[in-house]
Amino acid sequence: MQTSFGTGQANRESTDLAFTDPLTGLGNHRRFFDKVDRLISDRADDPAPFTVGILDLDGFKPINDLFGHKAGDDILIQVAMRLRASMDGHSTVCRIGADEFAFLYPMVFSEDAAAEKSRMLIEILSAPYDVGDRTARLSASVGCSLFYSGDETTEILIHKAETALYHAKRSGRGRVVVYTREMEEAAKRVTRIEQALRRAVSAGEVEPHFQPIVDLNTRRTIGFETLARWTDRDLGAVPPTVFIPIAEERGIIGPLSQLVLRKATEAARSWPKDLFLSFNLSPSQLVDQNTGLHILAILDRTGFDPRRLEIEITETGLMNDPASAEKIVEDLRRVGIRVSLDDFGTGQSSLGRLREFHFDKLKIDRAFVSSILDDRPSEHIIRAILAMCEGLGMDVVAEGIEEEAQADRLVQFGCAGGQGYLFGKPVDADATLGYLRDSFRGALRAKAI
Fold this sequence. Notes:
Layout: H1 4-18, H2 29-42, E1 50-58, H3 60-67, H4 69-86, E2 92-95, E3 100-105, H5 111-125, E4 129-131, E5 134-136, E6 139-147, H6 154-170, E7 176-178, H7 181-202, E8 207-215, E9 221-232, E10 236-238, H8 240-249, H9 253-268, E11 276-280, H10 291-302, E12 309-314, H11 315-320, H12 322-334, E13 338-344, H13 352-357, E14 361-364, H14 366-369, H15 376-392, E15 395-398, H16 404-413, E16 417-419, H17 429-448
Parallel strand pairs: 6-7, 9-11, 11-12, 12-13, 13-14, 14-15, 15-16
Antiparallel strand pairs: 1-3, 1-6, 2-3, 4-5, 8-9, 8-16, 9-10
C-alpha cells in the first residue's frame, strides 16, 4: 500500500517531468510560461520592469545535417550547460523549441541592459563545440521584450520577443533586437500584406510581367523573364521586393509561383516559337520534391513546350539543401527544361556547384554590370565569368544593362545575352504582345531596306 508521502513525491516527480525538457534538463515551455506568469502576478501591484528573451541558434540545421542528430543533441546539451551557467540566482533559462531557448531576467530593467545581457549570451555560445574528434561553431540571434505594465500578459511579452527575434534574424546572424512599438506596426503591416496576398492568390489576382532578354550582337529578342506583379485594391501596388519575401516566409510562395507560371505559359503560347520563357524558383521550392511535378502539370495543362522554358535558381537557394535542389534540377532537365543560375557572384555557393549541377546558362548579377564602365575589379570579374562559361559550355546573360556603353563593353568582352531597362522594362502580357508586333514590323522594314 502506497503512503500519502509516497503519493505526494510521485506527484511532484510527475509534475517536474511535465515541466522539464528531457534532452537538456532545462525547464520546457510550460516551465517558462509558469515562471513569467508568477513574476507578473508578483509585480501586479508595483509593475517594476523585467526582461523576457528568446534565443535562436543560427544555422543549426546544416550542422545537424552535417554531423548527424546525435551530434546535434550533444551540441544542444552543451548550449544548455553554457546558458544555465550564465544565469544568476534570479534568472531562468528554458528550452522552448528544437534550437530555441527562452530566458527571464527579473532584475534587468532597461533596453540597454537587456541588449548587453543578450550580447553576452551570444558571446558565450560562440566558442567552439566538441563533436567527437571535431569541433563546430554556432552563432545565435536574440529577441527581447520588457514588461512595463500590469496589462501585459505572458503571451503578449513572448509575442513581442518573437517579433524582435524575427527582426534580428532578418538583419543577419548573431544579432540582438529589443522590441519597439515600431516593430509591432511593421509586423501588423506584414500580416495585412500576407492576408491580402493570400486572397489575391486564391482569386488569381497576381499577374506575370515580362522583360525582354536580347542577343547583344543583333539586339534581337530571344526570350522573356517572368516577373510577378501585384496591385491590391486596398494596399495599391505592392513591390515584389516586399511581397515575395513575405510569400516565402509565410508559406504562400508555392501557390503564388504556380499561379504566375500558369498565366505566363498561357500568355507565351502565342509568342513566336523560337522565344523562350524564363521563370524564377524560390529557395523554398528547391527543398520541395513536388516542385517538378507542379511545373510539369502546369505545362501539360497549358500546352507549353517544356523545351521553351528556362528555370532560374539562385546560388543561395541552391545552398539550403543541395541534394534536394540537384534532384529537382535533374528532373526538370530530363524533360527538356533548361536551368539557369541567377545572380551569379553574389550568393554563397562554390565554383564546384557549376560542375555538379550542369547549368545551361549563367546570369551575371547587375551589381557587376552597373559598375563595368568605371570599376576595374568588376570588369575583371565579368571577363573571368565569361571565360569560365565558355570553358563549361554555358550560355551567359548579363542583367541590369541600362546604358548603350555597358552593352557595347559586354559585347567587346564576348557576352552574348543581355537584359535590362535599355531593352525594355517588365510589362504585362498585352503590352508584351504589342512589343513583339513592333519588333516584327521593325525586322520586316530592315529586310526591305
